[in-house]
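User: Can you help me understand a structure? I only have the sequence.
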Amino acid sequence: MTVDVRHVLGAISPNIYGQFIEHLGRAIYGGVYDDSKRSFRPDVLEKVQQLRPPLLRYPGGTFTKIYHWKDGIGQDRPVRKNLIWGGIDNNHFGTDEFLRYAEQLGAAPFLTVNMGTGTAEEAAEWVEYCNATAGDYATKRRNNGRAQPYGVRYWGLGNEEAAKEDAGRLQNPQDYIQQAWYYAKLMKLQDPAIQLVMVGDQEGWNQQVLQALHPVCDYISLHLYARTKPGDPASLFASIAEIEANIQKLGAQIKAFTPEKVVDFSKWYRFPSRQQPVRIALDEWGIWEANGQGAYGLEMEYTWNHALGVATFLNIFQRNAAVIGLATWAQTVNVLAPIMTNEITSICQTVYYPMALYRKLCGPQSVAATATGAGAAGLDVAASTDGKTLTIALVNRNSRAAVEIKLNAKTTGQWTAHELNAASIEAKNTLAAPATNVVSYKERTLPAGAKTYAMAAHSITILQATL
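Assistant: Let's start by predicting it. Here is the structure, written out as tokens:
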């Protein structure tokens, strides 16, 4: 394995470690929120706090297309049918509840606006409610118990608008572009500091959106889910490799169709253009298998093989740090989730543990790392640094064989290994045995002058040493 700390790949945004919640199945009610007590579920809150997400996306997802934020504020809230995912939503969990939840997590809130059944004016009023100090909706926020603005920085203009099966109406990219400009204008006139995430899709759609909207497009979204072929656990990693190729393809489109800096932006817009290069928002990513339970089969039991996949994803995000600005795992509780609940308890699934470890240890700057030689085919690697510590994230995806890694780096301190593993790639945590955790964690310091590190089969390791 070769690491070149002089070859900087890009700054790693802390927002690549975000999460997502949507009004879908038991994600909100019975997940983050105990509706019988009208409060956040404490056991879940504690687990999400320990996960330490820097960013939290809400209210969708496809649900965005029929969600009207005014239903979810104040005392008298209407009961609505969830036209997208089914069931009835009493709107007990709405804007203020979400934003308070994000504050308790220390997460920046990321709101998506309704471009299906909603209006640009409605979206702009939401910005006022969240961010303004004066105005009718700022007054409503104060009357609802929140004196100071929330300061919501990230706003998504719709969700998967190209999907013809959904309840949206903007499947033509030119229709989306026209509406997105209007939304952007009214929302930025409310708060010029907000950052906007535009909807991405296939190459043709992306090209038109980037060319037309780049002056106000801080991010373009990309939704990617990996899947395993039946009976072939290793196929998960091939699916994830295709996702890395898609990230790089969109990164190339951004480079081709958007200038790094906006020039000649008319003063008559009365708000500034974007200030940084356009970046990718992976605001839905995850592992979506076909064997789930619950609503739409989305209550998934994740195995240790899936945890290896999550670590591989996070390595990909580091390697492509120059083009990825944010990412939110879809989702957080019960729906394709690292945390599962029943009425009496909750558990952390296998995928929870690499998420937590990477967020805790990985550095802010991505540097080049490659693996060659025996065992390299099953090894995935990324490296990062904060200028003082070198952090190498390793995933041995081989289910049978260990791999020996040569350590000949010129570091000043001993190597510390943070190791995650399970008895087999099929191991999983379940609500049937909530006290049993199949995931083992070990932190150990390697002997002074160690020249090799033996990495166990199907394991995740983060190696650290002082530069």
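Now, to help you interpret it: The chain has a mean pLDDT of 97. The two ends are 17 Å apart (CA to CA). Let me know which part you'd like to focus on.
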